[in-house]
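Summary of Year 1 activities. Much of the first year was spent building the evaluation harness for sequence design. The harness presents a backbone, in tokenized form, and records the residue chosen at every position. We chose the following record to illustrate the format because it has been used consistently in internal testing since the harness was completed.
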């Protein structure tokens, strides 16, 4: 698939088929994605691929802790709640998703169910937990590198017929993820990518988030035209 077509067609997938993903396919995805840009070729990233029993344990315990009122325990520093235009964009995509799923504004049980799906990583059969070397903190450069790897993963997956959603909700309790996946303390858990074969009958999978027009966030400097 040509790159432009690949980027334009890719979307976040929040409903997956009950179908396993082979290790060979994941290896091929990572093999492509690891060519992502890396500052001075430092390659600060690590990928921990979970499936089966370990993933189910992470799902269950993460959901139980969050539903039980436990505090978020992420390795990375959070910005807190979004405000202003960022909050508006967050609300807009939620409205699109709820509309597609037929979830009414006052339907608290269904809205809660949607939140729980996020805590369960949308029941995807595979989760790729992305970490970076703690020795590189503080600093945004390694975060940038990991973001590049992450996007490479989701594009390489889409090219192979797999959908994914970058899902911080699924690792709200990073201590649980670290314990179950045996992730070393010298690695910082940044995010995870829930992955599987898309369920085309799941309405939310057809949702495409809106993007601002180029004029709203792009400046051209020095061009004659």
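For this record, the design step produced the sequence shown next.
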């Amino acid at each position: 698939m040509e790159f432009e077509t690949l980027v334009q067609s890719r979307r976040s997938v929040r409903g997956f088929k009950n179908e396993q993903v082979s290790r060979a396919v994941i290896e091929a995805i990572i093999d492509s994605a690891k060519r992502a840009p890396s500052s001075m070729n430092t390659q600060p990233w690590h990928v921990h691929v979970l499936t089966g029993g370990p993933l189910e344990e992470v799902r269950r315990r993460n959901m139980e802790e969050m539903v039980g009122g436990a505090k978020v325990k992420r390795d990375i520093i959070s910005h807190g709640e979004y405000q202003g235009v960022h909050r508006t964009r967050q609300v807009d995509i939620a409205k699109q998703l709820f509309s597609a799923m037929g979830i009414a504004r006052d339907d608290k049980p269904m809205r809660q169910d949607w939140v729980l799906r996020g805590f369960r990583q949308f029941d995807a059969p595979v989760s790729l937990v992305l970490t970076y070397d703690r020795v590189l903190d503080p600093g945004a450069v390694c975060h940038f590198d990991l973001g590049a790897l992450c996007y490479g993963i989701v594009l390489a997956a889409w090219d192979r017929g797999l959908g994914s959603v970058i899902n911080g909700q699924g690792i709200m309790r990073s201590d649980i993820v670290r314990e179950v996946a045996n992730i070393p303390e010298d690695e910082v858990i940044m995010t995870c990518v829930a992955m599987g074969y898309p369920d085309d009958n799941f309405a939310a999978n057809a949702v495409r988030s809106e993007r601002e027009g180029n004029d709203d966030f792009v400046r051209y400097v020095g061009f004659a035209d």
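The first helix runs from residue 3 to 9. Quantitative recovery figures across the full test set are reported in Table 2.
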